[in-house]
Amino acid sequence: MLENTLRFLLRGLNPLFAVHYRRQFQIFRKVVGYGPNIAFPSRYHDKMLWRKIFDHNPLFVTFCDKLATKEYVRARAPGIRMPATLWVGYSAREIPESLLTKKVVIKCNRGCNFNYFWNPDSSHIDEVDRVTRVWMEETYGEWNMECGYFHVPKRIFVEEYLETGGKLADINVRCADGKALLASVILHNKTDRMIFGYFNADGSRSELDRLTNHTFYKSGQIPVDYAVPPAFHLAVNASLELSRGIDYARYDFMTDGESLFAGEITVYPAAGISPATPLGTIGSDTLVEESWDLRSSWFLTTPQNGWRRLYAGMLRAAL
């Protein structure tokens, strides 16, 4: 009875949140497809918006920093390889010439898709300088209120180029506090040949692959007889270690078929804004929301102040 009363009272806070976070609520309704319940979140997208508003876990700043993430992975999963960081600085003009005599990847440590694949035969430093200046000026994360990015000190860095013979595959594992929920494999990522598939933690195909309306499938679906590479299981095991103590995140890896390389840790997949799976049907969001327990979030396990302390106590009791 008390829980139901608290849930009723919490839902009454939504109009106040809707006024204060008006733009976020409007974007949410337009893209996700329903009005969010932030005060007492239960669906995946509700929880993601709740995270952006309330759950400012300091570790999210680490995860939103590609360089700091490497240190986190190195401490938690020391057996997992990572592309070597060859140089860190503030301007592409400062990159040592010796590094530009071979293929490398030039990145910004804060943001998404801030990658430049340097080829000494065709790239020019003037172009790289122009691109990286735009990266450094970008206020990434502010529009969608992805707070983890706000306190990341911006850097430009050079990373080794992985020679994989075109066999590179992306493995993404969604985990909730030491439990693998869902994995995906992407082949030929970010090309017109991209194909995608969902997998269970044991490497078997997920029931989600019966769906035909997923945006990735516009580019094609991995054949049903596709066998995950051996590195898939290493990625799942590494994700379990990396995710302990984190209520939910996606752990990204790359493999050339055998070797596994750690990538990013994503706390705001698609900025937390994507079309919701219709009620009564199965989607990646519905599978995740069942195991994403906000009671293990930073906001509900760390003392809060003022009205947030009262709200956190009410939410914990209601959950």
Describe the 3D structure.
There is one protein chain. With 319 residues, the protein is an alpha+beta fold. It has three domains: 2-59 and 273-318, no CATH class; 84-160, no CATH class; 169-266, D-amino Acid Aminotransferase, Chain A, domain 1, CATH 3.30.470. It contains eleven helices and nine strands. The strands form two sheets. It has a five-stranded antiparallel β-sheet, with helices on both faces. Helix 1 (2-11) crosses helix 11 and helix 2 packs across helix 3 (22-32). The protein is globular, with a radius of gyration of 21 Å. The two termini are 13 Å apart. The mean pLDDT is 92.
Overall shape: globular
Quantity of strands, as a count? 9
Q: Give the strand order of the largest sheet, numbering strands 1, 2, ... along the chain.
A: 7-6-5-8-9
Element order: H for helix, E for strand: HHHHHHEEEHEEEEHEEHHH
Q: What structural category arises from helix and sheet content? A: alpha+beta
What helical percentage do the residues reach? 25-40%
Task: Please summarize the sheet with the most strands.
Answer: 5 strands, antiparallel
What's the N-to-C terminus distance?
Answer: 13 Å
Number of domains: 3
Strand content: 15-25%
Q: If you compute it from the alpha carbons, what radius of gyration comes out, rounded to the nearest whole angstrom?
A: 21 Å
Looking at how many chains there are and whether they match, the oligomeric state comes to single chain
The averaged pLDDT comes out at 92
The number of helical elements comes to 11
Low-confidence stretches: none
